[in-house]
Design brief:
InterPro entries (chain B): DUF5723
Strand content of chain A: 35-45%
CATH architecture of chain A: Sandwich
Protein name (chain B): DUF5723 domain-containing protein
Structural class of chain A: mainly beta
Shape of chain A: elongated
CATH topology of chain B: Porin
Order of helices and strands of chain B: HEEHHEEHEEEEEHEEEEHEEEEEEEEE
Largest sheet of chain B: 21 strands, antiparallel
Helix content of chain A: 10-25%
Largest sheet of chain A: 4 strands, antiparallel
CATH superfamily of chain A: icosahedral virus
Oligomer: heterodimer
Domain DUF5723 (chain B): 39-442
CATH class of chain B: Mainly Beta
Order of helices and strands of chain A: HEEEEHEEEEHEE
Helix content of chain B: 10-25%
Shape of chain B: elongated
Pfam families (chain B): DUF5723
CATH architecture of chain B: Beta Barrel
Radius of gyration of chain A: 29 Å
Organism (chain B): Leptobacterium flavescens
């Protein structure tokens, strides 16, 4: 009895095996959409950077440039669809500043820039600026190979001396949206 | 008792890995290949010769944690949604495994004819074995990025896989000491064709709240991928590899040694206890090796601008190059050619069997074939375990075996393991003339829809075998 049952069961199962209701073409729809957060530039400077021989510079500014070569990687160029760059300035100096961020391409030609005004304060003030790059201008990001940060001391207010308190800070990050098909 | 059972069941859930469990072949002694699982199995024939390339064909594919159906079911759910569910639903201890074996030949004979107590068997088989844990954290990082995982680490140790392609030359001796006790040993030479192994990885990648900037990115890595037989393949291309293959398959490449050992013990007439260990052995990889190592620690908060005083001649800083140099120095990626040794995955089998139901009296006065066992039926339990990089995998099988007709034996198994609590298997072994044909397949309940199954294995083969007789030949 058991034997016959086993035999019948075996034949039934072997005879009816198949793969049902599956569609392997769906694999073509696979899209990876990673979102990557990366720390970018940062610094902390004291107001004495704007002094020369103990006297405040007229139209004083400081400037620095860095290569950003990850963005000319072909995988990233092809996959990057959107980016948000966030710059957060914290000022505790009783003077106003203007920050200028400039994007340069391989020929060191400026292709994009923006300014941020940071007001004077007797306590501490934080100014945040988010620069959005979407479908229309994402090429700007992928073409960028250098970034320049210029920092201008704006006229007006108490002159800066060795005794001037406070600091200027920058924190920045990028959120990069990739689409890999 | 209930508590113990509960603990065992809980442990089961934690035990990873897929098998190579051949629960149908084990102790199915009508099939000569059962000697390959237990060299101390009872031999029921005078000699056997597998039909070359057809005597043992075995394939097994297993995935735990998900099925093809979860991904590819034609149910209107967005494919990427299904992938996402899978990413988070599957555990790092879930596995993907593939095992394939092909006997080139397999021959056995009893020394000193029918009276002999010693059975010799030898042969060559080819094996491909691939095993990988599900690289969960790396898959999540690739699919999702780090943005939603600030302050939570990605475990680089999730990368854990190995694979090998080899031929095995074996020679076994099976000795029947008494009616109660039989033991056997099989010596093996492994001839490795291709091997890769990345099993001891450790490390993390984390993006956490930074001190001076929004985030600190930190990588701690101790990763290694060892390969043998790959460097020449990459350099020479696949054509040269194929021509090289024969040489390597036949002892011209990296070699190893190992053994199987096993026994059969019958404490009572109707009770049988068996046990075996397979592939206790190693392969020494000394030729054509190439290993890749990534080892070190690196922390990044971004690029700190120092605003050099150009006027005073500080010059421009090359932050980017400094960053790359630091990274390369602190987390160097090395390609080296080191000799290494791999252990073969050890397999353990055990069984307890009760035989019952005396055979029906034959119409003939004397049916002298010794394969006609006194008892037609057997039932029992089998245990299987295989060594895997993190923890061994264990499977428990209940079986029933019977002689269906004079020429057909059947074994049915019900196996419980990590993959399935309802793995039903069925195996047939037939004797027509002196030709033995066997076919074994498990996970039959899933055959209705293969896409829904976690693992499948089948095995079949043809042998010529001469049954034991009470007469000298």
């Amino acid at each position: 009895m058991i034997k016959n049952f086993l035999l019948v069961l075996g034949i039934m199962l072997l005879g009816s095996s198949c793969v049902k209701n599956v569609d392997f073409d769906q694999a073509d729809d696979l899209r990876l959409t990673p979102v990557v957060d990366v720390s970018l530039l940062f610094f902390e400077e004291t107001p004495d950077r704007f002094l020369i021989n103990g006297v405040e510079l007229t139209n004083g500014f400081i400037s620095d440039t860095t290569d950003i070569q990850v963005l000319d990687d072909s995988f990233i160029v092809e996959s990057l669809i959107r980016a948000e760059l966030e710059f957060e300035f914290t000022n505790s100096v009783d003077r106003a500043f203007r920050a200028e961020v400039v994007f340069l391409d391989t020929d060191t030609t400026p292709i994009h820039s923006f300014d941020i005004d940071i007001p004077a304060t007797q306590t501490e003030i934080t100014v945040t600026h988010t620069e959005n790059f979407t479908e229309g201008n994402i090429d700007t990001i992928t073409a960028t190979t250098q970034m320049v940060v210029n920092f201008f001391l704006l006229p007006g207010g108490q002159p800066i001396t060795e005794e001037t308190q406070g600091s200027l800070k920058l924190r920045s990050k990028g959120t990069f949206y990739l689409l890999v098909e | 008792m209930k508590k113990t059972l509960l603990i065992i069941l809980c442990l089961w859930g934690l035990i990873p890995g897929y098998t190579q469990n051949k629960q149908l072949l084990y102790d199915f002694n009508e099939i000569p290949q059962s000697l390959m699982l237990n060299p101390g199995a009872e031999t029921l024939h005078r000699w056997h010769a597998g039909i070359p390339f057809l005597s043992g064909i075995y394939a097994n594919v297993g995935v735990s944690g998900f099925t093809l159906n979860d991904l590819f079911a034609d149910n209107g759910v967005d494919f990427n949604e299904k992938v996402r569910n899978l990413l988070f639903g599957v555990s790092r201890n879930d596995v993907i495994s593939l095992n394939q074996q092909l006997e080139i030949f397999n021959i056995g004979f009893r020394k000193d004819g029918w009276r002999g107590r010693t059975y010799y068997s030898f042969g060559i088989y080819e094996e491909i074995d691939f095993f990988s844990y599900w690289p969960k954290d790396l898959a999540i990082l690739a699919f999702e990025g780090n943005s939603n995982f600030i302050n939570s680490p990605f475990n680089l140790g999730d990368l854990n896989f190995r694979g090998e392609f080899l031929t095995v030359f074996h020679f076994g001796i099976n000795k029947k000491v008494s009616e109660k006790f039989t033991y056997g040993v099989r010596a093996k030479i492994y001839s490795s064709i291709l091997n890769f192994s990345s099993v001891g990885n450790r490390g993390t990648f984390i993006t956490e709240d930074g001190q001076n900037n929004f985030f600190t990115h930190r990588i701690q890595a101790d990763l290694e991928l060892k390969t043998s037989g790959y460097a020449s393949l990459r350099e020479a291309g696949s054509d040269a590899f194929v021509s090289n293959l024969r040489k390597r398959a036949f002892l011209g490449g990296n070699l190893g040694l190992g053994f199987d050992v096993g026994f059969t013990y019958k404490p009572e007439e109707q009770w049988t206890i068996t046990g075996s260990l397979q592939d206790v052995g190693f392969i020494r990889h000394s030729k054509d090796t190439e290993s890749y190592k990534l080892n070190g620690e690196f922390e990044l908060e971004g690029i700190e601008l120092s605003f050099p005083e150009i006027v005073n001649g500080d010059g421009l800083n090359d932050y980017w190059q400094e960053l790359l140099d630091d990274l390369e120095e602190q987390v160097p990626f090395d390609t080296i050619s080191n000799k290494y040794t791999t252990l073969r995955p050890v397999k353990l089998n055990g069984s307890v069997k009760y035989t019952f139901g005396r055979k029906k009296p034959s119409k003939k006065e004397c049916n002298c074939e010794a394969t006609d066992r006194e008892y037609r039926n057997a039932a029992g339990l089998q245990l299987f375990a295989v060594g895997r990089p993190r923890l061994p995998l264990i499977a428990l099988t209940a079986f029933y075996q019977t002689k269906l007709t004079n020429f057909l034996d059947v074994k049915a198994t019900y196996t419980v393991d990590k993959f399935s609590f309802r793995n039903l298997g069925l195996g047939f072994s037939s004797e027509i003339g002196n030709v033995n044909f066997y076919i074994l397949a498990d996970n039959l309940l899933e055959l209705q829809n293969l896409a829904k199954s976690h693992n499948l294995s089948f095995q079949l083969g043809f042998n010529i075998k001469l049954p034991e007789t009470e007469k000298p030949y």
